[in-house]
Automatic annotation (TrEMBL):
Superkingdom assignment: Bacteria
Family: Belongs to the ABC transporter superfamily.
Gene source species: Pseudonocardia zijingensis
Keyword field contains Cell inner membrane: no
All residue ranges annotated as the ABC transporter domain in the record: 33-272
Descriptive protein name: ABC transporter domain-containing protein
Region annotated Disordered, chain positions: 1-21
Length: 356
């Protein structure tokens, strides 16, 4: 073992033994929409509203939903970039919700983030080599003299020419920049990557390259990934499990093959109907489910089931019962009154909102 490896091993040991799991329970997060004359929040939007999520070692979990569903906020909460209003995030058996300082920094080495915009997440004044090796320098695993060698190894690991280390972000293509961001995230050898829309800013061919890179990392090294995306096809390609979000809540969750093959929630069925299939005959024969109406105001969601205003299968009870996630099959959960009556009755003092 080299001196660098020994120093890295000592750093990881100081952070604790690790369990290779992330468990988020009851997460909520709200943001102020307006403030009064004294600067106090007058109205708030709850971006994440009571979400449970688990990622275990060696698995990829996909979080999918429309824009505004709260999936990116959920990604920031579980990656410890935002603190939840309520709930907990337990990483490697350690409750990280209220950690500060060195304890939080040590735990964060086990979880790294790949952001949506690779150019915006890189410092334009620093070279590519500095960008990928800097985490090792900051955490004391290498000295400045070892940055060049470390950068070359990390760039090669994501399929880039080590000679790019001397270039700056503006001199790279979008796909190269995203590979640099992935190399930087892998520098500290985290067991979990949180990838927030990692391909949405790229063209189709480059997107395929990045997805195959992530798939290869998962297959070859057992890298765990929490993939946040609005594209069900991307999640279907990479994830072992998928969680479908709508207006701040998970409405269906389970093994990807089970959810895709037997979608139970009307919203999940609508999302899957929009995913094209490669067979033209099969594509023409498919029935597209078109959702009518706009997404409700997240600051004032409908009573009962939040999807009922756009659901063609809504029943009268959907406006009076807020459905809870119920297990319908093996590890397959859905929040829909079509499949289970479990839920919270809406207060009779509240006036049900219109379904139109």
């Amino acid at each position: 073992m080299t001196g660098v490896e020994e120093k890295g091993a000592r750093t990881r040991a100081a952070a604790g033994p690790g369990t290779g799991s992330l468990v988020a329970t009851g997460l909520t997060k709200s943001f102020p929409l307006s403030r009064d004359l004294l600067g106090r929040p007058a109205s708030r939007v709850r971006a994440v509203d009571g979400v449970d999520l688990e990622v275990t070692a060696g698995t990829t979990v996909g979080v999918v939903g429309e824009s505004g569903s709260g999936k990116s906020t959920l990604g920031r909460l579980v990656s410890l970039l935002e603190r939840p209003d309520t709930g907990s995030v337990v990483l490697d058996g350690v409750d990280a919700t209220h950690l500060r300082g060195r304890a939080l920094a040590a735990l964060r080495t086990r979880l790294q983030v790949v952001f949506q915009d690779p150019f915006g997440s890189l410092d334009p004044t620093k070279s590519v080599g500095h960008a990928v090796a800097e985490p090792l320098l900051v955490h004391g695993r290498i000295g400045r003299s070892g940055m060049a060698a470390a950068a070359a190894d990390l760039l090669a690991g994501v399929g880039l020419d080590p000679g790019l280390a001397g270039r700056f972000p503006e001199q790279l293509s979008g796909g190269q920049r995203q590979r640099v961001c992935i190399a930087r995230a892998l520098a500290l050898e985290p067991w979990l990557l949180v990838a927030d829309e990692p391909t949405s800013a790229l063209d189709l061919s480059t997107r395929s390259e990045i997805l195959n890179l992530l798939l290869g990392l998962q297959r070859d090294t057992g890298q765990s990934i929490l993939l946040v995306s609005h594209d069900f096809a991307t999640v279907q390609h990479l994830a072992h499990r998928v969680a479908v979000m709508y207006l701040g809540r998970i409405v269906e969750e389970g093994p990807t093959e089970e959810v895709v093959g037997n979608p139970l929630h009307p919203y999940t069925r609508a999302l899957l109907s929009a995913v094209p299939v490669p067979d033209p005959s099969a594509q023409r024969a498919r029935r597209r489910i078109v959702l009518h109406g706009d997404v409700p105001n997240p600051a004032d969601p409908p009573s009962g089931c939040r999807f009922r205003t756009r659901c063609r299968e809504a029943m009268p009870s959907c406006s009076t019962i807020d459905p809870a996630l119920a297990e319908i099959g093996p590890a397959h959960r859905v929040a829909c009154l079509l499949h289970a009556e479990a839920g919270t009755p809406v207060s009779t003092s509240a006036t049900p909102r219109s379904t139109t």
